[in-house]
Amino acid sequence: GVLWNKLLLGSAGFAVLLGLVLVVPRFRQDVWLYILTFGMVYGNALFPQWFFQGMERMRFITLLNILAKSVFTFSLFLFVHRPADYLRVPILNSAGYLIAGGVGIYLAVTRFGMTLQFPGIATLRHLLKDSAQFFLSRLSVSLYTTSNAFVLGLFTNNTIVGYYTAAEKLYIALQSAYQPLVNALYPYVARYRNVRFFKKIFYFATSANVLICVLLIAAAPWIIQLLYGTQMAPSIAVFRLLILVAVVVVPSILLGYPFLAALDFPQYANGTVVLGSVVHLTGLTLLAITGHVTLTTVPLLLAITESTVFFSRVGAVMKFNLWRTP
C-alpha cells in the first residue's frame, strides 16, 4: 500500500508539473528539462526505503543509494561532453534513481517476500490518512530546501541561481553523508529505547560535524575552484553560509526521527519542520516584497529556518525530559 500511494502521489506531482510548464512561460522554455528530471521522483517513489528500515536491513539502503549515484556519475563521463548534451544530465540522473528503485523492489520481493498486489482504494485512503502528518512533514522540508533556487530564479537571474545551486549541491552532499546514520539509528532507538547509546552517537556526530564544517569553511575557496573553476568565485561566500547552517542541521536531524519520533513523539518531529516551513515561506515573502532576494539573504534566511527547527526540537526534548539517561 505504501508503494502504491507513493506512485500515485508522484503521478499527482507530475500532473502539477505539467500544469506549471503549460501556464508559466518561463518554465515552458525548458519543458523537457523538467519532465526528464521528474524521473528522479518516480525513482524515489519506487525505492522501498521504508521496507528496509522496517526489516532493519539498512545496508541495502546504503548500497542502493551508492548504486544510484554511481550510475549517474560514471554515465556523466561517458555521455556528457559538451553544453549541447545538457538534457542527458537529467536523463542519467533519473536513470540512476529508477535503477536503484527497481533493484530495491526486486530485492524486497525476492529476498523478503514483499507482494506487489493492489491493496484497494479503502486501504490506500486509510494509509494516506494515517501518514498525513509524515507527508506534511516531508512536504514542509521540501518547501524550505527546494524553494530557494526557485525564488532566486524569479527575482534575480540564471547566473545568480547558478552560483547558489553550485554551493547548495555541496551543502546537500554533506547532509546526505549523515543519512545512513539516521537510517540506522531510527529502528534501533525505536526498538531498544537506548537513550544512553543515542547520546554517545549524538555527541560524537555533532562534534565531528562541527570540525568538518570548520575545515570546509577554511577550504571553501580551494573546493569551489577545484570543482567549478575560478568563474564560480561568488559561490564561495554562499558555500560558507550554507556550511554554517549545517552546524545546526545535523544535530537537528538527529533529534528528529532517530530520537523524537522513535520515542513516540512524531508530532514534534513533524511539527517542527512544519513550523520551519512557515517561517521560511514568510521570510521569502518579506524578502520578495521588500526587494531583498539576494545571494546572501536567502542562505541567511535558511539559517534562521533551520535554527528554528533545531531549537524547537531541543525544546521538545527538554519538555518531556527525554535526555535523561535511565
The poorly predicted ranges are none
Number of helices: 16
- The coarse overall form would be globular
Structural class: mainly alpha
Percentage of residues assigned to helices: over 70%
Proportion of strand residues? under 5%
Query: How far apart are the termini?
Result: 38 Å
Q: Provide the number of structural domains.
A: 2
Largest sheet report: none
Rg over CA atoms: 20 Å
Mean pLDDT score:
89
Helix-strand pattern: HHHHHHHHHHHHHHHH
The number of distinct β-strands equals 0
Would you kindly provide a brief summary of this structure?
This protein is mainly alpha-helical. It is built from 16 helices and no strands.
Plain-language structure description:
With 326 residues, the chain is mainly alpha-helical. The protein folds into two domains: 1-130, no CATH class; 133-326, no CATH class. The chain has helices at 2-23, 25-28, 31-37, 39-46, 49-54, 58-79, 88-112, 121-130, 132-155, 158-177, 179-192, 195-218, 220-228, 235-261, 266-290, 297-319. α9 (132-155) runs antiparallel to α10. The mean pLDDT is 89.
